[in-house]
Every structure is written in C-alpha cells, then in structure tokens.
Specification:
This protein is mainly alpha-helical. It is built from nine helices and no strands. Helix 7 crosses helix 8 and helix 8 packs antiparallel against helix 9. The chain starts with a helix and ends in an 8-residue tail after the last helix.
Amino acid sequence: MAVDREQVLRSAAALLTRKSTATMDEVARAAGISRATLHRHFARRDALVRALESLGIAECEAALAAARTDEGPAAEAVHRLVREMEPSAGLLAFLYTENQLFEGEEQNEGWARIDAALTELFRRGQEGGEFRIDLTPAWLTEALYGLLASGAWAVAEGRVARNDFTHMIVELLLGGALRREEP
C-alpha cells in the first residue's frame, strides 16, 4: 500500500500543532502508519519539520494569492489574508517555535518571499494613509505572525472561539488595544 506523503504531513501537522513535543512514534500513530514507514519518508524529526515548513510556506503563498493582497484597501486585504491563513494557523504556530526554520537556504528563501509580500502590504497601507507610520512594515509583519500563532494556540486551547479568530487578530493588529472614545 502506497503512503500518501501529504496525508502523513497533514496528520503530523495536526498532532504537532496540539503537542509540539510529540515523538516520531506518536506522529506515526497519528498518521496511521508504522514508525519504520515514517522513517523511510522522514529519517529524523528535523527532516519532518523541514517538510512541514515547506508545506507551511506553500500554504502561506496560497493564502497570499487567494487574499489578493494587492487589491483594494490594505486594511481589507489584511482581513482577507488573515481569513485565508486561518486554516494553516496551527501549523504556522508550530513552525513559529521551531529553530529549524532558520537553517537551510530553500526554506529561508520561501519565508523571505512571504515576508516581502507582507511587508509590501503594510508599506502600501502606510503610503495610502491607512496604517500608522511609526511602526515599521517589518514589525507589522512580525506582529501578524505572532498574532496568528497566538490565535491558533488560543483556539486550540478553547480560550477563543474559532469564529472570532479573524476578527480578533485583525482588530488587535490594525486597531491596537487602546480604547477609543466614541464620537
């Protein structure tokens, strides 16, 4: 029986999103395969994480394309982007914490493309007068990653309703935490 590599990766992502310290035995069980089969595809945990990173990059790039971040007001584009990234937020939360992200040219190149697209979106919003100019586009990009990861963890732990994910992230990122006086 042929093993569906993508199904194995998605099973691993689902498990590691909930339990980042899961062993390779646990990953194999979650994927419904033997540990030996898992090791034929991913010799060690770092190989699995690198494959998950490639999956995460592909999903982020697909979300960027689906969100059409170069169309319309930048704030609306951010909202569309967060909504498109929500299904991958758990995987991103896991990857956000893994040191292996900073090793390997291919992976860094993928994140660099994503970072550049996000930075451009925030720069466009600043130039259009939508976003604050005292926060750099690079910082807004990092803040978005952090909020996506935190949101995924909060939903997974049941502290935040899944239906509130996009609204809460976009509102905090673009609106801040300061209470505004009602006109």
